[in-house]
Amino acid sequence: MKIAAVTDDGKTISAHFGRAINYLVVTVEDGHITDSELRDKANHHDFHQEESHHDQYLIQPSGYKEAPGHGHGRHSAEKHRRMFETITDCQIVLARGMGQGAYAGLEQMNVRPILTEIKEIETAVQAVIDGTIENHPERLH
C-alpha cells in the first residue's frame, strides 16, 4: 500500500491540500514502513501564474463580478487532475484540510482521502497501519 501525505517540509502534513508543494509517498508492506520518497505536487501557486487576471472572475448578468465556484467545474477538475498525477499509484492521501472538489476528485480516482488532525506524517501513517486514524470531514472547505 502507498500513502501520500501533502507536505511542504517532508515531515508534517500540510494544513491545506491545494497549497502544499510536495507529497511524501510512504510504502507500507506487512504493516511496516519500507520506503518513502518526496514527490513534486502542482499547487494553487502554479495555477495562479498561468491564469490571467480576467479569468479569475465571472461577470454576472447583473454586472457584478464574482469569484468562480470554489473547487468544482471543468477548470477545477483539470487543476485537480494535475495535482493528482504524481500519486496515481497511491491508495490513500493524508491532508489536514482540503476543498470539496479535491476530495471528490480523489474519491473518483479510487484514492481514499483522509482529513486528519495529526500533524506528523510518520504518526499519521502509523495510525493508518493500526487502523486508528480518524477522518474529519469537518475539515472540508
Task: Please describe the structure with a list of short key phrases separated by commas or semicolons.
141 residues, alpha/beta, 5-stranded mixed β-sheet, globular
Note the topology:
Blueprint: E1 2-7, E2 22-29, E3 32-40, H1 44-50, E4 58-59, E5 65-66, H2 74-84, E6 92-95, H3 100-108, E7 112-115, H4 121-130
Parallel strand pairs: 1-6, 6-7
Antiparallel strand pairs: 1-2, 2-3, 4-5
Helix pairs in contact: 2-3
Which structural category do the helix and sheet elements fall into? alpha/beta
- Beta-strand content estimate: 15-25%
Number of helices: 4
In total, how many beta strands? 7
* Helix share bin: 25-40%
Low-confidence stretches: 47-72
Q: How many domains make up the coordinates? A: 1
Shape: globular
CATH level-1 class: Alpha Beta
Largest sheet: 5 strands, mixed
Examine the secondary-structure arrangement and name the CATH architecture. Answer: 2-Layer Sandwich
Radius of gyration: 16 Å
How far apart, in Å, are the first and last alpha carbons?
Answer: 28 Å
The CATH superfamily title? Dinitrogenase iron-molybdenum cofactor biosynthesis domain
Mean pLDDT: 83
| SSE arrangement, N to C | EEEHEEHEHEH
Oligomeric form: single chain
Kindly identify the CATH topology: Nucleotidyltransferase, domain 5
* Strand order across the largest sheet: 3-2-1-6-7
